[in-house]
Write a structure and sequence with these properties.
The protein has one domain. It is about 5% helix and about 40% strand. The N and C termini lie far apart (about 45 Å). It is globular and about 45 Å long. The longest helix has 9 residues, at about 45-55. It has one helix at about 45-55, and strands at about 1-5, 10-15, 25-30, 35-40, 60-65, 80-85, 95-100, 100-105, 115. This is Serum paraoxonase/arylesterase 2. It comes from Elysia marginata. InterPro entries: 6-blade_b-propeller_TolB-like, Serum_paraoxonase/arylesterase.
């Protein structure tokens, strides 16, 4: 994945090459807070191609969260997989959105999945007060 900055002349300047994430990523969606990108992802790309040709062949589905730094670069060491299914619940996830504590996962030719999202809470920073 490559991250570009749009220049004043509408040209593009490469600012980051995200190393291999071991998934074929699909539609990217900026979270409402603007601090991350969500994407449907395919852990075995050839299976999604087979699934698109014949829906009886199931394909794994994943959703990735790619956190963004203030400058818009992806924070690579904080990429997380929010969802994974072998293709039984949903096949070939292509898009994801978080709304009201729920993860909505879409597919081109399969169903929409809605599930509760439980994010690990970050520990409070020690203020130094006792």
């Amino acid at each position: 994945m490559h991250v570009y900055e749009i220049q004043k002349d509408n040209g593009l300047k490469l600012v980051q090459q995200v190393p291999e994430v071991h998934f074929s990523i699909d539609n990217l969606l900026l979270t409402q807070s603007g601090d991350a990108l969500l994407t449907g992802a395919h852990s075995i790309p050839h299976k999604i191609l087979t699934h698109l040709s014949d829906p009886h062949h199931r394909a794994p589905s994943s959703v990735l969260r790619l956190p963004l730094a203030a400058d818009g670069r992806v924070v690579v060491d904080e990429i997380t997989e929010l969802f994974h299914d072998h293709g039984d619940l949903i096949s070939g996830s292509t898009a994801a959105h978080i709304h009201s504590g729920q993860l909505l996962i879409g597919s081109v030719i399969d169903k929409l999945v809605v599930c509760d999202l439980y994010m690990k809470q970050q520990p409070a920073k020690n203020s130094g007060k006792k």
